[in-house]
């Protein structure tokens, strides 16, 4: 996360990694950043940030929720066969769908390159992304 924040800052954008620097917490609550990187535990398990997301000021300013490595929603956030464990490694990952309730109408982009079809369906359900069109033909090439 830090590397991504540093890259955005070098481009003249305001970015922070919420949870890594306590000093910046007040700046996040005041809405001083264009990009906020954080963990599910930080954004969902802290009453200050839940309140921030519920505020009308924030609801109008959040343009997109991005969940990178979305397969972790199942693999880390849940227990069972799909996760490969009897107990969740990081249970808050399975609760990321709560962001849809806290920020209704905000688009959500979930990105993964390694989830099976079964895991993708479970990810969609956990993130309340029902009724989506699958685009299995999308490819990414790196040169």
Write a short abstract of this structure.
By secondary structure, the protein is mainly α. It has helices spanning 2-10, 25-29, 40-44, 47-54, 56-59, 72-75, 98-102, 117-126, and strands spanning 15-17, 35-37, 65-67, 108-110. 20% of the residues are buried.
Q: Can you walk me through this structure?
A:
This protein is mainly alpha-helical and 143 residues long. It has a domain at 63-128. It has helices spanning 2-10, 25-29, 40-44, 47-54, 56-59, 72-75, 98-102, 117-126, and strands spanning 15-17, 35-37, 65-67, 108-110. The protein has a two-stranded parallel sheet with strand order 1-2. A two-stranded parallel sheet has the order 3-4. It starts with a helix and ends in a 17-residue tail after the last helix. Residues 1-133 form the Helicase ATP-binding domain.
